[in-house]
Amino acid sequence: MSSQVSITQLEQEFQELSKEWERFFAGIIRVPPEKVRIAYGQQLRRITEAGGVGGIDQYRLQQLQHKFTTYSQNWERLLREREEGRGRSLAYLRASARRGAPPAQPSEPDTARRPPVHQGKGDDLYEQFISAKRRLGQPASLKREAFQAQIESQRAQIEARLGHKVRFEVVVEGDKVKLTARKKGASEQE
User: Is residue 172 classed as helix, strand or coil in its secondary structure?
Assistant: First the structure.
């Protein structure tokens, strides 16, 4: 088999591997094609180490290696994010659409800041925080007592450091729900 045919075959196999990963991240298949990726990487390495390829074929092989390395790193990152619950899959977006929940807006930059969802005290703030997490499809397993204790601890630390009263707001930035401390105005002082 000539190097021309073998590199062309490797390129076709890479396209198939890429499609398999897309199917996995779309939720069509349940198990990541990790074994296929590893086998492909080993095959690519064997052909590279064997040598004996000419200038153009050497260039094609290097381009394929670079592409495979880049895609592999991206697949590993997406897989890690998915395992940590940070990633959004196509299956998740489809399920959200079926439930009637609005899908996350991909056109909105991560640094875009939405207006505060709520500002207030313990119980209301807790409800707004949990509600915002659920709207984004994130797990909301935080207990009310732990949340309130954390807020009071943070409030005491911030007020001691800044020397004035603060209130907390629930803010959604990109796909994250955050609590932000703001200085209380004169009308809000207790």
Answer: strand
